[in-house]
Each structure stands twice: as structure tokens, then as C-alpha cells.
Amino acid sequence: MYPAAVAMALGLALAVQSLGCLAVFGGYVALLGALVPLEEASLRTAYGDAWDAYARTVPRLLPRPTRRSRREQ
33 in a domain, yes or no? Predict the structure, then answer.
């Protein structure tokens, strides 16, 4: 969800072609950069080892390309 919101905010800033919108976009990215670790800390507190195991297998913001197994095809 965060990468899509960043892409939309960047698109808006580029479409409007305003330094103000570009500054707001920069602030939005900085805010998200601070928010993600706080959310992860909250999830770690709530779910403990289960969260740590999940976080090790799932990328933070962008999905990794994976190969599909033959059974899924």
C-alpha cells in the first residue's frame, strides 16, 4: 500500500508541476520512512516471535519476484 501511495503522490507532484507539491511529496516520503519502523516495532510488541518470523520472509515494502512452482502453473 505504501509504494502505491508514494507513486500516486509523486505522480500528482509531477502533474501539477509545483515546487510546493514536490516539497509535500518529500515530506510524505520522510513521514513514511519514520512511520514504517514505528509500525514494525508495534507489531513486534504485539506478536513477538511470530512477527519476527514473518518479517524475515516477507520484504518490507516491495514484493520480490519469485518462481512459481510447477504445481501452481
Answer: yes
